[in-house]
Specification:
single chain
């Protein structure tokens, strides 16, 4: 037993949870081994420090609750601003182009003089159509159509249908 060191046993198991047989083995070994005695004492001191530290109670400072809630509100406000900035980066170009389009349409509607627009519309219309051109589709022919021809073209199909 004196040839085997017990440091591995001390390192694997906390001192408080060692069985009585393991403690007797350790005590028997540390009588003749100063290195293991030092390791066992260090483990006992560490366990005592941990036990005392766990038993100590700490009271929070008087305004701890207020400071924590203020920090949480500040983080939440920062997160809301961050969410808006992410949304703006994603849809900013679309929103900007929509605003620019509305502004352009407003300028074209209210600022451009109305008579200028009306004169452009009238000048772009083709010349007036005559009844012959529309009914007979003879816009390219130069000969005159008589009234009889016109009436026959308009009402000719109905007379034949009644007969």
């Amino acid at each position: 037993m004196r040839d085997e060191h017990i440091i591995s046993l001390i390192e694997e198991t906390p001192v408080a949870s060692l069985a009585e047989s393991e403690l007797s083995t350790i005590r028997a070994h540390v009588v003749g081994c100063s290195k293991c005695l030092e390791a066992f004492r260090a483990a006992q001191v560490a366990q005592a420090l941990l036990r005392e530290r766990a038993a100590a109670e700490f009271a929070p400072s008087p305004f701890f609750h207020t400071r924590v809630l203020a920090a949480l509100r500040e983080r939440q406000a920062a997160a809301d601003v961050w969410a808006f900035s992410r949304m703006w980066r994603a849809a900013g170009a679309l929103a900007s182009s929509m605003v620019a389009s509305v502004a352009l349409l407003a300028v074209m509607t209210f600022i451009v003089p109305e008579n200028q627009v009306a004169s452009q519309q009238v000048s772009s219309l083709p010349t007036a159509y005559s009844a012959e051109e529309v009914i007979l589709d003879q816009s390219s022919q130069t000969e005159e159509v008589s009234d009889g021809q016109l009436l026959t073209t308009i009402y000719g199909g109905e007379e034949e249908a009644t007969r």
